[in-house]
Specification:
The complex is a heterodimer of chains A (287) and B (330). With 287 residues, chain A is of the alpha/beta class. Chain A is 36% helix and 16% strand. Chain A folds into 2 domains: 166 residues, no CATH class; 46 residues, no CATH class. Chain A has a 10-stranded mixed sheet. In chain A, strands 11-12 form a two-stranded antiparallel ribbon. In chain B, helix 4 links the parallel strand 3 and strand 4. Chain B is globular. The chains are: A alpha/beta (287), B alpha/beta (330). Bound molecules: iron/sulfur cluster (4 copies).
């Protein structure tokens, strides 16, 4: 089994303790991006840096053109286009990917705008999504006649979906426990960022981390999807299940005979069958 | 090339306004949304267009005007903005902050200038501030709606502000179907041509090229006058009528303002701008066919028809056809 990639907050001590693992560093300020790179790059341990400052995307200040850092910039809102505009040339050189929260309806359109300018980007589809806006973005991503950047999670799903298995696209948010584990300064380990925040831990400490693959809680968590069927949730009869894995269970409204989420994922499946997205990007880096 | 209307409102009320009827029939607050702008930018790109024009009403009053210009520039389009130049000081300051560093080959303003005598002082003041701030980007435009027009003030502005040495001359046409705007009557066409020639020395002396917007007929000029205009215009003279392609904030499309009621369609009915152009070119040609095809009786037998001249603005032809059918039904 490929060793996990650890997702951790920027913390020099922690980076030192986890010397055996590749890491995704969660930077909360611009200055931590370069520092994380300096710490981890030389032993080839930096998988990615996720910068989340709490500022609007357009308001983030970039200290240097972090050209060769696999950088993901997350924001809850876009901000103002004219503020971003002056940074566009700089951002193009950087090759960063931009993710906006899916909780705000207008963000889907901003993601489309960023993609139309050639940026690779994505919308963070959490439990609650805006299905109509998400569907517009999906159509743009698959069917627009104009050249554009990659839009996640559609690109990932299109590139990794196979008819005979399921797929966890949360990998694009570093939230797929089969590949990523989240860890904090106390060495508490969780399957996702949300679970780490909520105190739902799978293990604790370096030794338990090393043996996580044989850990019972971890195995149960990997198979958590089975619960959808055991408790006979609306997801158990859902045709979109293999792409969604019940991510919006109990949180989506019904539209006609289908759940809104179900209709959305069915559109993705239809698009993949009709016109899968071209596989692009740096082959040496993958989610 | 396509014209994208950002707004359906204007800050001026020019007597000849070509957009007035359209603005009155549209929802006053209709503005081009980001979603539609993104769609149109993609459509233009897929149509291999590299130029886009932004119009109104007055396009600069759109709350995202600056953003749209910047966005289209980032998408590698050349952008031309058709404006009255009547811009509030606050917006002008923002425009200077964000647009004045753009390369002037990529961004142009065509400033539709009215004679100072018919311009209220406040408007004039604002326009002059705009001319001062964006001079290297600005081509002066002038719409001819009466035969005794005066271009002297335009030449003065070119020198005073350092504007681009080109004047875009528009002939005002009767907006169909009502023709309620002030427009140049056919009977005045030759007078207008003679008047224009009175400024030929100024064009030549100031090395300023005259540019004809659509609908100028060839035969209102003598051969000698055409020669002078050819020289002044550095060999570029156009006597065409062809669809301009105007796209409204609600994504309806029509061939040009005078024909805004003529077969409005939705942008979504077409895949490319080329398709829209072809649709309206064919329709306009079909409309001209049968009976008098041009603005003058002589057009049908004219040697210039289809070669050098499109036989004037179709709006006059429609007006003539309507008058004829009215007379017949009487
Ligand atoms: S699409 Fe909706 S109904 Fe289907 S599995 Fe996902 S959350 Fe459940
Ligand atoms: S500036 Fe243009 S849109 Fe405004 S009133 Fe004059 S002609 Fe009409
Ligand atoms: S086609 Fe008509 S308008 Fe044109 S030059 Fe001939 S007569 Fe004049
Ligand atoms: S009908 Fe022809 S000449 Fe008249 S405004 Fe339209 S495009 Fe121009």
């Amino acid at each position: 089994m490929t060793p996990h990639i650890l997702v951790a907050p920027y913390n020099e001590k922690l980076m030192g303790q986890l010397r055996q693992w590749k890491m995704v560093i969660l930077a909360s300020g611009e200055s931590q991006v370069g520092s994380a790179n300096n710490h981890l790059r030389q032993d080839n341990r930096l998988h990615a840096v996720v910068l989340r400052t709490g500022k609007a995307l357009s308001a983030i200040e970039y200290e240097e053109p972090w050209e060769n850092i696999p950088l993901f910039i997350y924001a809850d809102e876009f901000g103002s286009f004219r503020d971003l505009s002056s940074k566009v040339d700089f951002l193009r050189k950087m090759g960063a990917r931009f993710f906006l929260s899916g909780e705000k309806a207008e963000n889907y359109q901003w993601v489309q705008m960023l993609a139309s300018m050639g940026f690779n980007c994505g919308v963070h589809l959490g439990k609650k999504a805006h299905w109509e806006a998400a569907s517009d973005l999906l159509h743009y991503s698959f069917y627009s006649p104009a050249k554009h950047g990659q839009v996640e999670p559609f690109n990932y799903i299109s590139g990794n979906f196979s008819v005979d298995s399921s797929i966890n696209y949360a990998a694009v948010y570093f939230d797929d426990p089969s590949r990523y584990l989240h860890i904090n300064e106390n060495l508490e380990i969780a399957a996702s960022s949300q679970e780490l925040n909520d105190g739902i831990f799978l293990a604790k400490g370096i030794e338990e981390l090393k043996t996580i693959s044989s850990n019972k809680a971890y195995e149960t968590r990997l198979n958590a999807w089975r619960g959808l069927f055991l408790r006979n949730s609306e997801c158990s009869g859902c045709e979109s299940w293999r792409v969604c894995l019940g991510k919006h269970e109990g949180l989506s409204d019904k539209n006609g005979s289908k759940m809104e989420c179900q209709a959305f994922y069915l559109q993705i499946l239809e698009a993949i069958m009709q016109k899968p997205l071209p596989v692009e990007g740096k082959p040496e880096w993958r989610f | 090339m396509a014209n994208i209307l950002l707004t359906q409102k204007c800050v001026r009320s020019c007597p000849y306004c070509f957009a007035k009827d359209n603005m009155e029939s549209a929802e006053a607050n209709a503005v081009m949304s980001w979603q539609n702008m993104l769609y149109l930018a993609d459509m233009l790109e897929a149509s291999k267009e590299n130029h886009v024009s932004l119009l109104g009403g007055e396009p600069t009053i759109h709350p995202h005007f600056i953003d749209y210009v910047l966005y289209l520039l980032h998408r590698s389009f050349h952008v031309t903005v058709f404006t009255s130049g009547v811009i509030s000081p606050r917006l002008l300051a923002e425009m200077e902050k964000h647009l004045s560093k753009v390369h002037s080959e990529r961004l142009s303003f065509v400033c539709n200038l009215n004679h100072p005598d018919i311009s209220p002082a406040d408007e004039l003041n604002k326009t002059k501030k705009f001319l001062t701030a964006f001079a290297p980007f600005i081509t002066p435009g002038f719409n001819i709606y009466r035969p005794d027009f005066d271009l002297t003030f335009i030449f003065d502005y070119i020198q005073q502000y350092g504007l681009r040495r080109h004047v875009r001359l528009g002939l005002t046409h009767p907006i169909q179907p009502a023709a309620e705007n002030a427009y140049l009557h056919l009977a005045d066409m030759r007078k207008m041509a003679s008047r224009l020639m009175e400024f030929s020395d100024s064009f030549l002396k100031l090395q300023t090229t005259p540019g004809f917007d659509c609908g100028f007929p060839v035969c209102i000029f003598t051969d000698e006058q055409i020669g002078v205009l050819y020289k002044a215009g550095k060999g570029r003279l156009s006597f065409r009528c062809g669809p301009a392609i105007d796209i409204g904030p609600d994504m309806t499309v029509w061939p040009c303002f005078p024909l805004h009621e003529f077969e409005k369609k939705s942008v979504f009915d077409f895949s490319t701008v080329g398709e829209i152009g072809k649709y309206y070119s064919d329709l306009m040609a079909k409309t001209r066919a049968g009976g008098r095809s041009g603005i003058f009786e002589e057009c049908n037998d004219c040697e210039h028809l289809q070669g050098l001249c499109s036989a004037g603005c179709l709006a006059y032809v429609l007006m003539n056809k309507a008058a004829l059918s009215g007379a017949q039904s009487v």
